[in-house]
Amino acid sequence: MKKLLIAATAAALLCSVAFAESHEGAKHGKHWDYSKNGPTHWGEFSKTCANGQAQSPINIIPGKSVQLNAQYKLNLHEDIHTTAKIIDNGHSIKVTPKEGGTVELHGETFKLLQFHFHGKSEHTVDGKRYDMVAHLVHQNPKTKQLAVVAVFFKEGKKNPVLDTVINGLEKEVKIDPQDLLPKDISHYFHYVGSLTTPPCSENVQWYLLKEPAEASKEQIETFRKYYVDNERPVQELNDRTIEAE
């Protein structure tokens, strides 16, 4: 019995240490956000947010990009008719498909985990922010590396998928992630960056589709009733290279 008690105590201690390490700032009763504990304070929750040298988002300058390395060519396979849970997670509107599509990168398959929205684009192109953005987050099940495909939105025609998302908030709906994409998915920018929220983990493969999708003025305004300033400021490029296809 004594040995079992010692083992249980040790296990509990290990769990509490792991929890503390994965929730920097929690001991102070704080949680990161976009206002009081916004981006300038994110280093309190993860040191990588403050000290990382390959952070996202960045400003894309098309004239300074180089030709894409062929091994990083993006192959999208998002045409999956599935159901998805849609929630407001306190930072964005998040959609989690029951069955996700995939992307293929350098011979590896990454599966769609979720996609979420920002009221303005986080990345800028020649200093310009788009009206909205969707981030499609994929993960390699073997290596756990992430690949994020960014779909910019500009004001234009009404987008049926966005209506599905808004009307399905806190519900489970039928959805096909491919319907979120613009017609041209063969041209994009690529670079290696990070998550744009804590813990700001690096080594994320970013793909930003050049052609924006469209959303009506009313749809953009509806999304912004939930989140209008949930974007991280642009980070330094440092010695990274932006590739283009």
- Report the CATH architecture: Roll
Which structural class do you get from the secondary structure elements? alpha+beta
Helical fraction: 10-25%
Distance between the termini: 64 Å
Poorly predicted runs = 1-28
CATH class: Alpha Beta
CATH-assigned fold name: Carbonic Anhydrase II
Shape: globular
How would you state the average pLDDT, rounded? 89
Biggest sheet, in brief? 13 strands, mixed
CATH superfamily, by name, is: Alpha carbonic anhydrase
What share of the residues does DSSP label as strand, in percent? 25-35%
Rg to the nearest angstrom? Answer: 19 Å
Q: Strand-and-helix sequence, N→C?
A: HHEEEEEEEEEEHEEEEHE
Tally of DSSP helical segments: 4
Number of domains: 1
Overall strand count: 15
Task: Write up this protein.
It is a single chain. This protein has 245 residues and is of the alpha+beta class. The longest helix is centred in the N-terminal third of the chain and has 21 residues. It is globular and about 45 Å long. It has one domain: Alpha carbonic anhydrase (Carbonic Anhydrase II, Roll), CATH 3.10.200. Strands 2, 3, 4, 5, 6, 7, 9, 10, 11, 12, 13, 14 and 15 form a 13-stranded mixed sheet that branches. It is 18% helix and 32% strand.
